[in-house]
Amino acid sequence: MTTQTKLDINFIRQQFPALKRDFIFMDNAGGSQVLDSVINRISDYLSTTNVQLGATYAVSQESGKRVDEATEKVAQYINASRKEEVVVGPSTTMLLRILSLTLSEQWVAGDEIIVSNSDHEANVSCWMDLRKKGIVVKIWKLNPETMRFDLNDLQDILSPRTKLVTLVHASNILGTINPIQEIAKKVHQAGALICVDGVAFAPHRPVDVQALNVDFYAFSTYKAYGPHQAILYGKYSLLKKLESFNHYFIGKEEVPYKLQPGNFNFELTYSLGAIPEYFETVYNYHFPDNKEVSINEKRNKSFELIANHEEELAALLLGYLADKKQVRIIGETKADKSKRVPTISFVHKSIKSSAIVRKVDKFNIGIRYGDFYAKKIIEDFNLVEKDGVVRVSLVHYNTLDEVRKLISAFETIL
Hints:
The protein is 37% helix and 14% strand. By secondary structure, it is an alpha/beta fold.
């Protein structure tokens, strides 16, 4: 086998059982399809080691080892410094809520946090609710002309009392990739912490929490080819300082268990180990003659292939939409992989977004309309009357032919 310079889409699609259906999945930002290897791990765990962890008997010890090793793989996958920096929970919304409640115990009335108007409510409501404690919340707004963040605007609202800045890595409506490394540097220079919602970014690009130098980072695994679960990363030194959110006898030193009330789901956590393995498999398939590289190098190279393929998908759809005079693309109009992921939103001048999507349904293509819980964008850009945006959210297992079929469907509507 020779080195593949382009993503072998047939090989990729073989890894996802749902893609055998006669249906085109383009609502992936709402939830991706699940890897066959993830499904097999869940089944295997429930079939062979479904016991409570922490007992002295052999099966419990085996079960604990399996879950532990999976967590270790996730930590390595996001380049955390140790597995204790990985908090597993039921959803990004819940994990960020727990973080807001425990982290805010260190703050006093008058302290400030900064949220954005680009975020999913998972990373807004939990912080806004702290106003009840006297915490001041400021909003960093997108530039309405560029639909991007202006770092000068952030500088204007940072203050000596700023404790936290929180925002998305990529918008689940605009698809825009935000310069987190640069933002983190500015936030840290101001003496504050940074928390990033990576839900819309993690399915498309590698997450390296140390390179980004973020303090907290969260994403949902069910949108990144895994089960309905989520990950919260936190620097160990910061997690140790948080108050326990678990039973009274679970102390502050018990990281991350103190942030996992009711424990975490064992079979789903075990299945998470299949996600890093998948990207290693993608590398080994495409570069069979060069396997002597680190796991993270394999991950990065796999995502490079993925980004190139996704850029092609986005270019085809964005090019079509740009030629439609009645259509306005909401967000980046170019497919540049360094600036956006292939989550593409638009509105039509005379047809409501809901009507467009319902007409697409009959073509056996799944897209969506609405605000996607990023309500501030829809409100601030006056898109409520349109029933929000039409969103087409592509991932690397989508094909150019599928995009062409969507375009053919749009031709009967737009």
